[in-house]
Amino acid sequence: MDLYEHQARELFAEHGILVPRAEVTGSPERARESARRLGGRVVVKAQVKTGGRGKAGGVELAADPAAAELAARRILGMDIKGHTVATVMLAEPVDIESEFYVSYVLDRAAGGFLAIASAEGGMEIEEIAARRPEAVARIHIDPAEGVTSAKAARIADAARLPPRTVDVLVRLWQVLVREDALLVEVNPLVRTAQGAIVALDGKVTLDDNARYRQARWGSEGDSRDDPLEAAAAAKGLNYVKLDGTVGVIGNGAGLVMSTLDVVAGCGARPANFLDIGGGASAQVMADGLAVVLSDPDVRSVFVNVFGGITACDAVADGIVRALDTVRVTKPLVVRLDGNNAARGRAVLDERAHPLVQQVTTMDGAARRAAELATTV
Questions:
Q1: 279-322 pLDDT, tens digit each
Q2: Closest of 254, 324, 258 to residue 285, by C-alpha
Q3: What is the rounded average pLDDT for all residues in the chain?
Q4: Are the C-beta atoms of 112 and 144 separated by less than 8 Å?
Q5: What does the pLDDT look like over 325-347, one tens digit per residue?
Q6: What does the alpha-carbon distance between residue 206 and residue 196 come to, in Å, rounded to a whole number?
Q7: CA torsion 311→313→318→320, rounded to 10°?
Q8: What is the mean pLDDT of residues 219-223?
Q9: Domains of the chain with CATH codes
Q10: What does the DSSP 8-state code read for residue 4?
Q11: What is the Rg, in whole angstroms, of the alpha carbon atoms belonging to the chain?
Q12: Is the C or the N end of the chain the one with fewer CB within 10 Å?
């Protein structure tokens, strides 16, 4: 669950980290009012969950409230890497002396966390690491130990950060632990001309498994800007929207990934990744099919199931249930194999829906779904 920048800054402030005053709005007119309250001169920043906002024109410095309104009008509705800007944040500008980069990220391979820090912030950390790897410090953190003042001092020393960042490093760790975060990043963390250490930008990713403890963010904090992804998440489905025309449903991440490759090999582009899981019920199948069919980009759907824990007749029951509750206007190609496959095929044969076709092989089914996507 990714948070917007303004939400990340809210967390930072709650944990005692300095951030500039700011307001968020989705209206150019209200942007003018916010700028007036903030002193007139403001930075107008697009609120989208992706990087590269500045390069895309999503960050502007406005000299006065009228300029802030014009900047907000330009930025709102902008497309930045596939994300439509619905709100902007107006923040007080800061007199910057130095810029730094700091983050904590889950290191699954090491079974702990990794602190990444550099005295060269304000740009893509990947570029710095590629050009000058010695400029980026990486310090492993034992979750049981955490980031004490001594550990924070070691991180700051390794990254050549000023001593005053030590307290911020400790507080950022508190954000990660108390808010169930997998990533906490500040880029840039700055030292102002007055010597204050201030977080100008922030990125926080919360653990989806801890949603019940982070209910205050609701759907606003959801990482899924796409409404289909949000609808699927509400049903507990593992769904990712892609940019193709063949909807893909399978049971098991490995099978779904293979299905995406096979569909692409047949000259079509998958419209989504949807894994209904190894023990999916008929209801899960029905929910998944409803989400995929509601995608206007989908021209055909490929349901690829190998029955194991999930019996094929249960999958077929789910398809039939969806056919009875969802208005189906797109062809479905179904491949059932494994546990109770014959019984599942019989269920679909009995239903005899004119838009449902069965193909016994994975390659053949993918080929047929690709053909249908180009002719529908």
A1: 656 788 888 888 999 898 999 999 999 988 778 998 888 888 88
A2: 324
A3: 89
A4: no
A5: 888 889 999 999 999 999 999 99
A6: 28
A7: 170
A8: 47
A9: 21-91 (3.30.1490.20), 96-217 (3.30.470.20), 227-375 (3.40.50.261)
A10: P
A11: 25
A12: C
CA atoms of 249 and 255, how far apart (whole Å): 9
Paired with 106 in beta bridges are 113
Q: Which of 101, 179, 229, 239 is catalytic?
A: 101
Single-letter amino acid code for the residue at 107 = D
Selected catalytic residue, list 69, 179, 185, 229: 185
Task: Collapse the DSSP code of 376 into the 3-class scheme (helix H, G, I; strand E, B; otherwise coil) and give the result.
Answer: coil
Segment 199-225 mean pLDDT = 72
- Whole-Å CA distances, 270 to 133, 258, 304: 37, 11, 13
Coil, strand or helix at 198 = strand
User: Rounded to whole angstroms, how far apart are CA atoms 233 and 179?
Assistant: 20
User: Are residues 289 and 303 in contact, defined by beta-carbon separation less than 8 angstroms?
Assistant: yes
Look up 212 and say whether it is catalytic: no
Q: Read off the pTM.
A: 0.61
Residue with tokens 């509601």: 294
d(CA 136, CA 318): 51
Torsion of CA 248, 249, 253, 259, to 10 degrees: -40
Residue 229 annotated to the active site: no
Percent of the chain with pLDDT over 90: 64
364 backbone dihedrals φ, ψ, rounded to 5°: -65, -40
Where b means 16+ CB within 10 Å and e means fewer, 193-209 reads eeeebbbbbbbbbbeee
User: CA 155, CA 96: separation in Å to the nearest integer?
Assistant: 22
Which residue, 291, 287, 282, is CA-closest to 348? 282
Cβ neighbours around 127 below 10 Å, total: 10
